[in-house]
């Protein structure tokens, strides 16, 4: 292949030298108005009140559920992280964002393609090629029918003088990073969701045991009332009331058993297991409280919360989209080239005289667009400011959730301690009645009935313990669940304040 150099005319070279200056002046004149970017939240607002604290301190670990030392829970969460449909969707979003980056990046480079055309053509006697519509070998006319051919390589390159394509690539990369953070958030939602459902089942298991004990007390009470009624010592209403109370307990037991079935189905769907693919969940001892609050939040919270990280990446990407919208005001410069063969007759296609070379520098300068570019810039800026405000709101919501959940755990812990003291006080009466029964000073029904307040107190304490476990998992999610990323995007583009 021969190297062909086509020098540009002198006047073209002069205009190319003046092009950047003219473009800057023209573009600045076209930008009517651009609002400043919205302000990001101040660091001092990312903190907890001084009266919000727990007994222990610290951030959750990466595998925060290991603190419960429950192999059954570990297996469920590990399975969910590998098979949950929600995570499969999140990973596909990451792949889609990566493909978008590659697509935009590919558009920034040299585009080349091979062309090959064959055309059976009838030349008009009144058109531009009317001379070839007749048969005149002297001028190479053998018309009016011809086979025309075109073979060659076509190339096109957009010169990114103002960084528009670079900004679009950076915006796409920011969105890809946001999707990765969203995938981490989906993993956090799945792991905490599995733990919540798992301990809901465990709480019901314990409550079923206590309800069965309470039912034994009420069943004995009903037997005693029925016997007294049959001997004419009591009215029928008292035995009827005892029976109604027993039936109410049976309803609670049935409801608890159904709750296990419903919660198990929710857990199966979250884990991504089949109808018969979820292992049986055996009862285990409930864990002791072990969650803590960090001493300070500040910007460390932004590194720990994947949802905040995703919003921050989206806000950073929006800055690049604003820059791309500004670059659209400037002239665009591209180069199109073609080398190949073009002939009116196929037999002349690959001859020396059939060579065709095109080198076309192109310049597009926006002058009158009906406000389209300003509308695009206004929309990009509005979208960017909206993302910043959403980010600020999400940060404040995160701090609020942590504060409220931490305060709730502290309150539940205090109430649980009071309930344990109350149970100890009630147990004194129960133990006394039991001792009287053992010495023959009280009947068995009285001893069993004295146990009822203790069991009811244990049911109330169980509810508090369950609420505390639930709140601990919610706090773990609010603190980011062990997620950490130090790859933070900037809070503003250079030159924008």
Automatic annotation (TrEMBL):
GO terms for cellular component: plasma membrane. It is a lipid-anchor. GO terms for molecular function: efflux transmembrane transporter activity. It comes from the Bacteria. Signal peptide: none annotated. Pfam families: OEP (PF02321). The keyword Signal applies. Gene3D superfamilies: Outer membrane efflux proteins (OEP). The keyword Lipoprotein applies. Its main location: membrane. Keywords: Coiled coil, Lipoprotein, Membrane, Palmitate, Signal, Transmembrane, Transmembrane beta strand. It is found in: Cell membrane; Membrane. InterPro entries: MdtP/NodT-like, OMP_efflux. Residues 239-266 form a coiled coil. PANTHER family: MULTIDRUG RESISTANCE OUTER MEMBRANE PROTEIN MDTP-RELATED, OUTER MEMBRANE CATION EFFLUX PROTEIN. Belongs to the outer membrane factor (OMF) (TC 1.B.17) family. This is Outer membrane protein, multidrug efflux system. It comes from Paraburkholderia megapolitana.
